Structure formats: C-alpha cells, structure tokens
Amino acid sequence: MPGTKVNKATIDVEAIHEKDLIRGVAATNPPTAVRLDIQDQHVVMDNGILQVTLSKPDGIITGVRYNGIDNLMEIINKEDNRGYWDVVWAEPGRKGNIFDTLKATGFKVILQNENQVELSFTRTWNVSQKGTVIPLNIDKRFIMLRGNSGFYTYAIYEHLRGWPDFDLEETRVAFKLRKDKFQYMAIADNRQRKMPMPDDRMAPRGQELAYPEAFRLINPIDPNMKGEVDDKYQYSCNNEDNKVHGWICTNPLIGFWQITPSDEFRTGGPVKQDLTSHVGPTMLAKLEVGRIISRPQMIFQRRINEVRLVADYLFVTGTLMEQTSQPNQHTSALPYQVTLDHGKENARATNSGLKPNADGSFSIANIHTGNYNLYAWVPGFIGDYKYNTIITINPGSAINVGNLVYEPPRDGPTLWEIGIPDRSAAEFFVPDPNPMYINKLYINHPDRFRQYGLWERYAELYPNGDLVYTVGKSDFRKDWFFAHVTRLRLALASATLSELQKPFDQTQDSFGFPPVDL
C-alpha cells in the first residue's frame, strides 16, 4: 500500500510453520475439523483457517481465502489462469513447444476425515490424442491438514510401455496472486524488495529490452523505480538455496509462500539455477526433465512437492576420499554434493543430495526403496565421482559404503589453470552494469552478476579485439570475463594435436551460458 513500509523479512521455513500452527490453534482452540464441500463445478477444502477452491474436474486453483481476504488469487484473471500445474513439451523432431495447463477430466476423493483431506484430479491419455496431448497419465493431488494455514500439492506423471517418445522441457506449479495486495517479494534474506507492478511492463510505462522477459521502467507507477530494469531471470535461485520464496501483503500483513519440502524432484544438482517468484505477482515451483523414452517394462513417474509419510526409509552412509599424487595415499575430500540418483535413461532426477561433513563423511536419509547410483563432485577438481556398484534400497535396512576413493581424471600434471573448477563463474571479473540498466537490489550485492546487460559490457571493454590472457601473469579475478559471449574465442598454440575440454556439462550461469572454468 502507498506509504506503507515493509521491514526486511527474514525467511525461516521452521518459523513460518510454527507461526502458522500457533495462529491456527489460537484462532480455533482447538482447530476445527477439515471440511469438504463438493459442488457442481467446484470443490472447496476448508479447515477454519484457510479455504481453497478448485475447479471440478479441471483441478485448477481458483480461490484461496485467508485472514479476511476473500481471494488471494488474481481475481481479474480467468479462473483457469490463477493457480495451476502445467507442462511445456514437444514431439521429437517437431518445431515449437506445446503449453498445457493439464486440465483434468476426472475427480475423486482419496482421503477425507476430520484431520486431512486429499483430492485427486486425473487425466488419462489415449492414442487418438497423439501429437496434441502430452502422452502421460496425469494425477494431480491436493491436500489440506487440520490446524495448518497451508496446503500441499503433488503430481504423478505416468508414461506407459509403447507410448510415444516426447521432450518434456519443463513442468511446474504456478500461482498468480492479486496485484493490489501482494507487492513485496522475498526470495532470500538478502534478495527481497518492493516490486514493480505488472502494468509497469507494458508500453508506454515500460520498454522491452533484448528479450521479452526484460523491461526498462520508463514511467512506473512508483516513480522511485524509474529507469530500473525488471527481468524475471534476475530472481533465479540455485536449487540448494531454493527452500522458500513468496510475496507479502501489507494490509492485512500476511505472506503467501511456496515452500519446498524435498529436493527429490529436482534435476541438475545443487548449483542448477531456476526461476522462483517474479512480477505478476507470480510464484513458481519448477522442474526441467528432458527426453522421455518409451521402453519395455518402463513406467516413468514424477512426484513434485510431495508430502507423504512412508515406512520404507533408510540410510546410506560413507566417506569420500581423494587420491593424492602419491600411489596408494588418500586424503579426506570435501565434496560439494553426494547424490543418490534413481535414474532411468534420460529421465534422471536427484532423489537425495547433501553437502557432506568437513571430513568427507556423509549420511543420506529418507530414501525410498529402489535401485540407485551414487555420485559426488569436489570443488577444485574436474569430473564426477560415480560409485561402481548399484545401491539397492530395501525396507528397513541401512547401508555403509565405506571409504570411497575419487581419482580426478588427468593425463598428467596440471601446467596452468584459469579459475577454479567449482561449477561457478563467481571468481571471474564481473563488470559494473550500464547505468541505464540497473536493478537497485543488486547494487553492491554478492549477486551483482545478475544485473541486466552485463554481456554487452564485453564489447565496450574490448572494442578492438578480444581479451588476451597471459598464463603466469594475468589474474583471472580481473582479466577473465565471467561469461562466454559471442565474440569470445579460445585458441591453443600447440605443435601437436590439442583440445579444450569442459570439466562438466550440467550447469549454466544465470544467462544460460556454461561457466567458464578451464
């Protein structure tokens, strides 16, 4: 609201849950039972604190009522453009992607009692839909608990034997909130601000820049934002840090938060960046997958934002050691991540990943039954470690893989190195932004590389030719540009056959370029 100041929000997932539970108990004392109202075209879940309305049988969130506000979702949008699951997909070899909000055709109640309601919205694929509907059986679930001011959603995607192959670029959950209520966005303790209005991104208030997601604010509703750039990619976040993000309403003072209960659905590892919240106000929970291939006996399932109690959890423990330059001598490694991968070909997803202890030891808990590969990688060393034995998870057991020795791939001693092989370009030179294209949030900020247009600064810094880096003399912190740009060329002077190899291929920087560790 005009004239209302929002103090800096400290994002604490446990505190959010605790406050929600306290508020629920205090409001009802004890909390009322969860109620379900099934209507002709809608179904309503209500626990006395929160009321969620979904279209039936589509399974689209049309309304969220909370703390005296009839609907937190954007009421000026059509009902099917408020809160929904979606996919972006394509048939192999065909140009253009298909966007689908996964409207269901079937509805049923999975569970209903005074403590919990779980709803299912389903859609079944058949061959007559080939080329027009994604070849998946869809089951979208929504859960409400007693005494809780939130709700849960997850989905099961099933791809059966003999069904067509397809490319699944992404799937996500999107929430579009009321712009007259939610104007302050928070992604992290040091990444939060009052945001522009969506109207500011339309002419004549805004000017589109190099791509449709980026706008310069020419005449924004809030004059203090004049001249700033708004770009949803500036609010991307590493998977490892993407635990909670959302929006704050100042009158009344409430928050709408997307909380990630598990990393099991994510692909790409901890330093893979993805979208969070951005001007709309919009909130996303997003997953990228890849090619889905039909093979005999293969069933592809994907659960996202799942909250479920099961009894078949167990632990995998061990210690990662690094091979030293001396034969048969090892030292404790400090892996950035150890991952159990429940992968089938081209449908891999991280099931459990964590940062190990300082001595390289690790313990991965809460693992579902199945067969897994174990991977790890260590900052400062190229390549990935892969355990050479499939780990089979059975109910009620625990596995200790012992000491695992990682031997970084090399053909000889390192002669020179530019940067640090840590899957980040943070150590390289990041220029100051063009004063015409500033986001005030990132002035003197650790994430200053997120400023718009920094790639154009390369041509300004080197107008007559590419940078020259002299091994042994140049300093990569000052002399090596942080991003690969179209003008940058790398060449090796060699009397024999030579090549450059990237030490990894799974991560990108915030602009889609691969990090430039060499």
**How far apart lie the N and C ends?**
49 Å
| Rg calc | 25 Å
Largest sheet: 6 strands, antiparallel
**How would you classify the quaternary structure?**
single chain
* Residue share in helix: under 10%
- Which outline best applies? globular
Mean pLDDT: 81
Low-confidence segments:
1-5, 16-28, 294-314, 344-352, 503-518
Overview of this protein structure:
By secondary structure, this protein is mostly beta strands. The protein is built from 3 helices and 32 strands. Strand 18 and strand 19 form a beta hairpin. The longest helix is centred in the N-terminal third of the chain and has 16 residues, at 13-28.
